[in-house]
Specification:
Blueprint: E1 6-9, H1 15-24, E2 28-32, H2 46-50, E3 58-63, H3 68-75, E4 80-83, H4 89-99, E5 102-109, H5 112-117, E6 127-132, E7 162-164, H6 170-180, E8 184-187, E9 192-194, E10 197-198, H7 200-211
Parallel strand pairs: 1-2, 1-8, 2-3, 3-4, 4-5, 5-6, 6-7
Antiparallel strand pairs: 9-10
Helix pairs in contact: 1-7, 6-7
The structure holds the ligand O=C(O)c1ccccc1N[C@@H]1O[C@H](COP(=O)(O)O)[C@@H](O)[C@H]1O.
Length: about 220
Amino acid sequence: MTGGVDVKLCGLSTPAQVAAALDAGPRWLGFVVFARSPRHVAPDDLAALTAPAAGRAERVAVLVDPDDGLVDRVAGAVDVLQLHGGETPERVAAIARRSGRAVWKAWAVGDRLDVEAVNAYAGAVDRFLFDAKPPKDAALPGGNGVAFNAALLRGVAVARPWILSGGLDAASLGPAVARSGARAVDVSSGVEEAPGVKSASLMAAFVAAARTLEPANA
Ligand SMILES: O=C(O)c1ccccc1N[C@@H]1O[C@H](COP(=O)(O)O)[C@@H](O)[C@H]1O
């Protein structure tokens, strides 16, 4: 817990970025294992990269429609698998059983019905992550720095704890949390100098801003 609102700093890809992120003090660190991403971490490098976080932050691997081989290569290096592709509820459940890890399902929100639809996954996941729909020409399903109307989350009966994501930064965080009722947030682009280049000062400012927020009542 970072204070009022839990934080995941996502898209860390070098030891220096991990050290700076740990200094900022988030609850979760995220590592993207997706070759098209500028934040991509090769599966074979993941264990060494995540090792300094053990006991200091929970480690989350962000995967997009992973096959069983990739799940097997990644699971031992992290605490959580965040599934950010088009995985069905059945596939999510199979990944949870196979990996023995906590599993989160990322879900793109365009309207309130999208939010309610996520409950089809409730039996298979520990947590949801709500993100914006990617732009039509986007190369990535997430990490695009695009926000959505966070008020769509307010008051919807979501069957698992959830995280607000998409286009956040230290300035937009407070209003987005107030509109949505979020108790946890996730950021990548908003703490970068350029795609994949994390800023120690922006990460610290984001976590510090989250600490000042009161837990919201969704
Ligand atoms: O960050 C990426 O490159 C990425 C690639 C593939 C799937 C998901 C990805 N990122 C996730 O999207 C959120 C939101 O990012 P942003 O703050 O809008 O840039 C990010 O935290 C990751 O969970």
